[in-house]
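Entry type: protein chain
Record version: 2
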Amino acid sequence: MPGTAFLTGAGKLKCKSIIHVAALNCLWMSSPKIVEDCTVSALHLAVKNRFQSLAFPLIGTGTGGVNKNIAEAIISRVIGQSQYDGDVTIVRFS
């Protein structure tokens, strides 16, 4: 379901876990609302699992078609309003 998040192991990556989000709807598109819901869901898992740091890509901006600036603004706003108090890096791929 778009906007949900779930936790998996990180395999051989140098992190403890990976939070995956469902950023696309059944038409393979995203939206500002889905970006917001994904961010809220991911932060909820981070708080629940007591993560000390997170890296957020610009959710929904690739195949999903959301404007990068809009996605970044939504993610930043949601992080600022959340209960998560760890370090957050927003990753902007070229």
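Comment: Helices lie at 32-48, 68-81.
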